[in-house]
Amino acid sequence: xxxxxxxxxxxxxxxxxxxxxxxxxxxxxxxxxxxxxxxxxxxxxxxxxxxxxxxxxxxxxxxxxxxxxxxxxxxxxxxxxxxxxxxxxxxxxxxxxxxxxxxxxxxxxxxxxxxxxxxxxxxxxxxxxxxxxxxxxxxxxxxxxxxxxxxxxxxxxxxxxxxxxxxxxxxxxxxxxxxxxxxxxxxxxxxxxxxxxxxxxxxxxxxxxxxxxxxxxxxxxxxxxxxxxxxxxxxxxxxxxxxxxxxxxxxxxxxxxxxxxxxxxxxxxxxxxxxxxxxxxxxxxxxxxxxxxxxxxxxxxxxxxxxxxxxxxxxxxxxxxxxxxxxxxxxxxxxxxxxxxxxxxxxxxxxxxxxxxxxxxxxxxxxxxxxxxxxxxxxxxxxxxxxxxxxxxxxxxxxxxxxxxxxxxxxxxxxxxxxxxxxxxxxxxxxxxxxxxxxxxxxxxxxxxxxxxxxxxxxxxxxxxxxxxxxxxxxxxxxxxxxxxxxxxxxxxxxxxxxxxxxxxx
Length: 506
What we know:
single chain; 2 domains; mainly alpha; 21 helices
């Protein structure tokens, strides 16, 4: 028994280099243990919700260590602020309370994501040298136990996602869209629900909180769809995303000066599908896990590279963030209600802030600015008089949209703007046909994976619906055999170079 104690201690302890992620065996051990107890409590809400909360907090502790305290602070703060907003009948007091919630949440987000950027900006502009110092770590007890470092500010995993969850709740209570929850535990489950806690989708209270008190809702078809989503998500991540990353995209993005023009084009396309399969793979698994537990989350992606315009792309890509930015930023700024010029300005501001949401770096601001400018241009194009508008064939519109999005991923992925510039230069170099056979041979496996990713993405939606339908109808033993075969197949692709999910850093 004593031989297993170190393994148990390691499993219960936080290790920065070994977080719980969906592609690791530790997570599936965690989920198996969770399901064992969940099978006993899922019909009893008074026990089920505290049970889910306990495991959700443990999951976040394993993912981000001491930051679980920050998560609890955010939950408690907004739970009571929302209750006070609901009790107050005075509009001015409501505004003050929701203002406190917005200010506190943005202050936390700004401190952990943008403090160093602000310090560097002051040094660059005014010569002020502000030492990097983690004031939060300094005031917390048990620094050594919690593995805190006062000379560095570590970004808590998924901080943007749980802050946006909590912030949308207090704003919706202020707007009268939802009523304040009576139970702190229920609210804590809403914010910390472990399947979607660290990388979304961003769930709205009105879409989730009613399910907390509802009877367990799942059937054989839902279970089959959940398994299909989980397997599909793992396939996207392990077989497609990680292979495109380690086999092609990383090599070119890290040293673009050594790449040929052909390799640069392949790498840009590879990263476009890498980030899509990585992020949509995570959300597929998250939605599937939630469905196993009887919770229904909205889809977060809808075949985004089939978009025929940049506006269409943002209706399909990271849908929960797009809707969040629309409802809580674009519309409050004025949306399209203040004339054409301000509509374009509001689109640009929204996307610039959306870029900044991804990280404290000029490359993300550039990425957001490019998308904001494209959205404004497309809005202007749609507003042209009918006699001046030109009907662009769908195949051309789709081709242009995809490559615009792919080019915008360059500054998003590159280490810095100088690397982005170097890669852009390579894209416009003349192709040397003589090197094509060598490139195809060198990158044969990732290029085959890229072809597979393109094929799967552009399959008709009916084919994908058929996959879900079959998984929901076949006998359980056949579904079990299918799962086993898929897992064995995916295991062949897993390596020590497997990458963490990209959106964990946001």
